[in-house]
């Protein structure tokens, strides 16, 4: 058995500092979304301890303590909830716990699934009505963080045979249909808002978003993951191919733009991309993993090789790595190491070695030789906070699989749509 990478010590130390909810500084716990935010609060920290307990690296007591914090107030549902907040967030955390302890949390999960499923159906009805009106969507209708792709990840895992996940998939299939606006043919996921989801004068005419967090790579990943599990609706394969063709059209070597605007559609604006980080949220890592999942679903070895090669190349691109400035799961070195490890596990033999080597180098960057994990952990908590997406908990969680060489024990990264 291969010895764990020293970066595991950093993960261990972060977990130790986050073991007791009662010790959380008021600056964290007083935030309005603290209890129910997977991205920023208690459910995300619980996820770290759930995975560690499932791997035999930590006790279950912190799991119960952090889940109690998350469930300590009425759970938010409806329009104010999404994968990273409220009922879907808690359902994800509890599903991961139940994965490690079969039979646990079943009553709570059954109730949460009904709540999430009902909300998903309402969202689908709204999306279908919007499509019939010929209007363009908001990012929050379909993306991973706030939309149907993210909520669909909960439904796919908890109720793969149910009607709600099929409704979600059908909506995402229709999202791939072109839309005509003012004489211009646009992809169905074009939105009139800016990448923040707000109207912004810097984005006249809106944009098309490529990212796995907020763009079309999220729906692509869900459609592919469902197809791999045998959950298929009419037009699903064609929708996957439509998105793949779009991504191929805008590909520049091993990179994709974060987004495009009308200027890119009507003019010669295909300038080389500036250096950009190859992250999960926006960039090559998230998109390449979505492409690999699509290739596996369609049994397309050429696409699979291209996706894996793009990621392996991006992870040794000095300019791209220089644009990566933190350790986070969302857009930092730990997140890249996790995606490299996940992608390597599904890669063809000629790409496996490259991706595993990249994961090791990323771990070295995350926890350099002779670094003091205690100092690192304290510094990370002081500067980035305890959050899952952009802070210490997510960093510690993303390090676990690549540092130990194992697959995630609980499937925690389904909330990233990387599995």
TrEMBL record:
Keyword Zinc appears in the UniProt entry: yes
InterPro entries: LanC, LANC-like
Keywords, alphabetical: Metal-binding, Zinc
A GO biological process held by the record: peptide modification
Pfam families xrefs: LANC_like (PF05147)
Protein's UniProt name: Uncharacterized protein
Binding site for Zn(2+): 281, 330-331
Organism: Kitasatospora phosalacinea
A GO term, aspect molecular function: metal ion binding
UniProt cross-references to Gene3D superfamilies, sorted A to Z: 1.50.10.20
């Amino acid at each position: 058995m291969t010895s764990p990478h020293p970066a595991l010590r950093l993960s261990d130390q972060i977990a130790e500092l986050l073991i007791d909810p009662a010790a959380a500084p008021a600056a964290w716990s007083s935030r309005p979304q603290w209890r129910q935010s997977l991205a920023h609060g208690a459910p995300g920290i619980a996820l770290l301890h759930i995975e560690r307990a499932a791997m035999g690296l930590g006790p279950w007591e912190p799991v119960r303590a952090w889940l109690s914090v998350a469930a300590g107030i009425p759970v938010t549902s409806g329009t104010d909830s999404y994968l990273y907040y409220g009922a879907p967030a808690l359902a994800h955390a509890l599903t991961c716990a139940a994965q490690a302890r079969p039979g646990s949390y079943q009553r709570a999960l059954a109730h949460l699934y009904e709540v999430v499923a009902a909300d998903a159906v309402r969202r689908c009805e709204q999306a279908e009505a919007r499509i019939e009106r010929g209007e363009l969507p908001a990012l929050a209708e379909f993306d991973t963080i706030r939309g149907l792709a993210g909520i669909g990840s909960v439904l796919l895992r908890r109720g793969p045979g149910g009607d709600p996940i099929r409704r979600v998939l059908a909506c995402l299939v229709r999202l791939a249909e072109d839309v005509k606006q003012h004489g211009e043919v646009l992809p169905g996921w074009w939105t009139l808002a800016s990448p923040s989801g707000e109207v912004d004068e810097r984005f006249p005419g809106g944009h098309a978003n490529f990212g796995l967090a907020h763009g079309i790579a999220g729906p692509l990943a869900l459609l592919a993951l469902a197809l791999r599990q045998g959950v298929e609706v009419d037009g699903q394969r064609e929708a996957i191919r439509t998105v793949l063709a779009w991504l191929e059209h805008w590909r520049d070597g091993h990179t994709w733009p974060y987004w495009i605007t009308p200027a890119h559609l009507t003019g010669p604006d295909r300038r080389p991309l500036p250096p950009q980080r190859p992250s999960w949220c926006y960039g090559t890592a998230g998109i390449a993993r979505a492409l690999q999942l699509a290739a596996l679903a369609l049994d397309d070895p050429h696409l699979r090789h291209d996706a894996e090669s793009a990621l392996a190349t991006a992870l040794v691109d000095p300019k791209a790595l220089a644009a990566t400035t933190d350790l986070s799961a969302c857009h930092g070195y730990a997140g890249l190491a996790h995606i490299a490890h996940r992608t390597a596990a599904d890669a063809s033999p000629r790409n496996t070695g490259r991706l595993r080597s990249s994961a090791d180098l990323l771990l070295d960057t995350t926890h350099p030789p002779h670094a003091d994990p205690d100092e690192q952990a304290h510094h990370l908590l002081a500067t980035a906070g305890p959050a899952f997406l952009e802070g210490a908990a997510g960093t510690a969680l993303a390090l676990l699989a690549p540092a130990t060489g194992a697959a995630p024990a609980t499937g925690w990264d389904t909330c990233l749509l990387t599995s």
